[in-house]
Design brief:
By secondary structure, this protein is α/β, with parallel strands linked by helices. The chain contains 4 helices and 4 strands; from the N terminus they run βαββαβαα.
């Protein structure tokens, strides 16, 4: 739980899959990874110790790529989910839509332990806009 975003939880899964220009390009996480992300979020949602029912939960895959000059270090690829959830369930539970974001590996490494939360804030803002 981020101090500035106390009402939100972000379940992030950094993958080593090659990310292409969109969700149809590259080697992206399969159904088992999608299901694990949903289960992680459901477990948090039902955790009485931190009262997650009061939080909005987001799910995202972070996929590496090598940034070229003047490219953004974060690139949204889209979202994926399991097709057996109804439209109503998808609207009520944001975490059922797993967002996919390309992240420049070098930028991430330089910002992984920064003094501020700029990189996290950029990732969180992008997840919420997708």
């Amino acid at each position: 739980i981020h101090p500035k975003r106390e009402d939100k939880i972000y379940v992030l899964d950094a993958k080593y899959y090659k990310a292409g220009a969109n969700l149809d390009d590259g080697n992206l996480p399969g159904g088992e990874s999608i299901l694990k992300q949903i289960v992680y979020a459901q477990k948090l949602e039902r955790n009485d110790k931190i009262k997650c029912t009061q939080h909005k939960i987001y799910n995202a895959f972070l996929l590496p790529y090598g940034m070229k000059e003047k490219e953004n270090s974060l690139v949204p690829l889209g979202s994926t989910s399991e097709d057996w959830y109804s439209e109503k369930e998808m609207c009520e539970n944001e975490f059922l839509k797993i967002k996919a974001i390309r992240v420049d590996t070098k930028t991430l490494m330089y910002n992984h332990k920064g003094a501020d939360d700029k990189m996290f804030d950029e990732i969180a803002d992008l997840i919420e806009r997708m």
